[in-house]
Design a protein that fits this description.
With 488 residues, this protein is mainly alpha-helical. α1 (3-44) crosses α9 (254-265), α2 (70-81) packs parallel to α11 and α11 packs across α16. It is 60% helix and 4% strand. It is globular and about 135 Å long. The protein contains 17 helices and 4 strands. Strands 2-1-3-4 form a 4-stranded parallel β-sheet.
Length: 488
């Protein structure tokens, strides 16, 4: 029996030693990670802010954060401003960016900021749009399920996967399954939807009607499971901050992955990443907000669109070869030169001319385009969600999500919450500057360019001048009379 206490003491000592070694290793790992992240952060941003950040450079890089409305901007703004010949190969996973492409002046991509390592920073302007992180998580969850639900027309997962593979091999375009982050999220949800459908077929439906669509486990993965899954923690949470910092799992910089793993392991190191993302926002040409849709669109048209239009007009009419030789990141071809050597404007389609586009017309085209685009998206969404009925993702359904779950989403996206607030401040300042600039320009234009208004001001000036002259004459005559009376 004397051996039992000794054995217990020995086990306690071994446990203590093991715990101490583990703690020391953990501390060493933290210190190593801290050094790695700090070194990356110090080398990732410019010490001084860019002085010309509000001037559009040769290449426009639209850093498209998923589920922020970027697709709308691409189709309804950028494709109206740039001819397809000026688009860079979009660097989604299937089509990695090729900087040698001639006439490359527009890059629209889900790639993170790390792609800037392949671009000439001083000749590149970056724009992006941010969204309230809670809404972005909801939208990411809904869209990944929506796309995955389209495969439920197949009898089983194997058939769906094989058909998707055959279609992708035949088409030359880029599928949703080729694009980050959907290349990870959609197959994940597709597999989950088929598994839940198989269970329902075996035991029959057991779900109740009129329950929260975000917690309908018999049909789709509940939202609380989704946000706590390792895949979501790896890709979705704080996604905007990681994308702007250049630290997604899709980054083309090998060192980024070490930094990213350290931050995911030690959350306190995320503050270094946040500061890098903030400084990068500071140096962007434009930062929009999904929630402030109308104001963001107006600002994009006036800040970005106006400069694209202006540059294309100058380039098209300039007789100076040097002025036209701005092919961006591409080769020696002139800025607006086609393959046949003729000049074209990047701001319009082939059936119109550059001088026909104005900021006002651009906004009209945008409003018309966004209306038809939203209608098509809504129809496709409705068709997809029918396959997982009665689950239906609506604004009313979102209101049924418990506050505790919303707070959990906010906590999981603490970096994005802070970055979004920072973006709101940038947007507010830039919007105020735009309004003041447009207000001053509008008053000046209405005063000097409106012939009727200008004529009115001319008559007013003449009238005031005549009154002043008459007053001076009257004063002079009155003074002479007084002088005459004094002499008498």
């Amino acid at each position: 029996m004397d051996h039992v206490p000794k054995l217990a003491v020995l086990l306690l000592l071994l446990g203590y030693v093991s715990f101490t070694i583990s703690a020391l290793r953990g501390n060493d790992d933290y210190e190593h990670c801290k050094h790695t992240v700090k070194k990356w952060a110090s080398s990732s941003v410019d010490i001084e802010p860019k002085e010309d950040k509000h001037i559009l450079q040769d290449l426009l890089f639209f850093l498209h954060i998923p589920r922020t409305g970027g697709r709308t901007y691409f189709h309804c703004f950028l494709k109206r401003l740039y001819a397809s010949s000026f688009e860079c190969p979009r660097s989604y996973d299937k089509l990695r960016f090729d900087p040698s492409k001639s006439n490359c002046r527009l890059l629209v991509s889900h790639d993170d900021y790390g792609i800037m390592s392949k671009l000439l920073r001083e000749r590149t302007s970056v724009v992006t749009i941010l969204r309230n992180p809670i809404d972005r998580v909801f939208s990411t969850y809904e869209f990944s399920i929506e796309v995955a639900a389209r495969f439920l027309v197949h009898p089983n997962l194997t058939s769906a996967t094989q058909m998707a593979g055959r279609l992708r091999s035949k088409t030359k375009g880029v599928s949703t399954l080729d694009i980050w982050p959907w290349k990870y999220l959609v197959p994940w949800m597709r597999e989950d939807l088929f598994a839940r459908r198989d269970v329902r077929v075996q035991r029959g439906p057991t779900y109740a009607k009129n329950v929260n669509s975000y917690n309908m486990g018999d049909i789709v993965m509940p939202l609380h499971e989704y946000i706590n899954d390792p895949i979501a923690r790896d890709i979705i949470h704080n996604g905007a901050t990681f994308q702007i910092a250049g630290l997604t799992n899709n980054s083309n910089l090998p060192e980024s992955h070490d930094v990213r793993n350290c931050v995911l392991k030690h959350q306190s190191l995320g503050e270094y990443v946040l500061e890098v993302a903030k400084k990068r926002l500071d140096n962007m040409l434009y930062v929009g907000l999904t929630e402030d849709h109308k104001e963001s669109a107006t600002m994009f048209a006036n800040v970005v669109g106006a400069q694209v239009i202006s540059q294309s007009i100058v380039a098209s009419y300039s007789n100076d070869p040097a002025a036209n030789d701005k092919s961006g990141i591409g080769g020696p071809k002139k800025k607006d030169e086609k393959e046949d050597g003729s000049l074209s404007s990047p701001d319009m389609k082939s059936d119109t001319s550059h001088y026909q586009m104005t900021v006002g017309k651009l906004m009209q085209v945008y409003e018309s385009c966004i209306s038809s685009l939203r209608k098509a998206q809504a129809q496709r969404r409705t068709s997809s969600l029918k396959r997982i009925s009665p689950a239906n993702f609506t604004k009313e359904a979102r209101r049924q999500v418990p506050e505790m779950l919303l707070q959990e989403i906010k906590s999981l996206n603490s970096l994005d919450m802070k970055l979004y607030q920072y973006a709101q401040n940038i947007f507010s300042k830039q919007h105020k500057q735009m309004v003041e600039k447009l207000g001053g320009a509008g008053r000046q234009e209405s005063m000097f360019n409106n012939p009727y208004r200008a004529a009115s001001w001319n008559f007013l000036y003449l009238g005031m001048l005549m009154i002043i002259l008459l007053l001076l004459v009257a004063l002079f005559v009155n003074a002479r009379r007084r002088t005459s009376k004094v002499k008498i």
